[in-house]
Amino acid sequence: MADSIKSPPGISAQSVLSGVLNLGRGYVKRLSSGDLGALPILIGLIIMTVVFQTQNGNFLTPRNVVNLILQMAGTTMIAYGMVFVLLLGEIDLSVGYVSAVGGVTVAMLLSDSRTGWTWYTAIPLALLITAGIGLLQGLIIALFRVPSFIVTLAGLLAWNGVVLRLVGRGGTVIIQDPLVIGIANSYLAPHTGWGWLVVGVFVSGYAVTQGVQYLTRRTRNLSTRPLPVIIVQTLLIGGIGVGVVAVCNQDRGLPMVGVLLLVMGVLLTLLAKNTRFGRFVYAVGGNAEAARRAGINVNRIRVTVFVLASTLAGLGGIILASRLRSVDTRAGSGNLLLNVVAAAVIGGTSLFGGRGRVTSAILGALIISSLENGMGLLNVEAGDKFIITGIVLLLAVIIDSLSRRRQQQSGLA
Amino acid sequence: MMQIQRWIGTLGLVLLFGAARVTAQAAIEIAVLLPDSATSARWEHDDRRFLAAAFDVAGVRYSIVNAEGDRQTQIAQAEQAITNGAKVLLFVNLDGGSGAAIIAKAREAGVRVIDYDRLTTQGDGSDYYVSFDSAVVGWLQGEGLIRAIAAAQADGMIGAVPKIAILNGSPTDNNARLLAQGYHAVLRPLFESGAWELVAEQDVPDWDNQQALIIFEQMQTNNPDIDAAIAANDGLAQAMIAARMNAGLPYIPLTGQDATIGGIQNVLAGRQSMTVYKPIQAVAEAAAALAVALVRGTDTSRLLNGVTDNGTNDIPSVLLEVVTVTADNVASTVIADGFRTWAEICVGEFAQYCPPEAGQNG
Question: In A111-184, where does DSSP find H-type helix?
Answer without folding.
Answer: 119-144, 148-167, 178-183
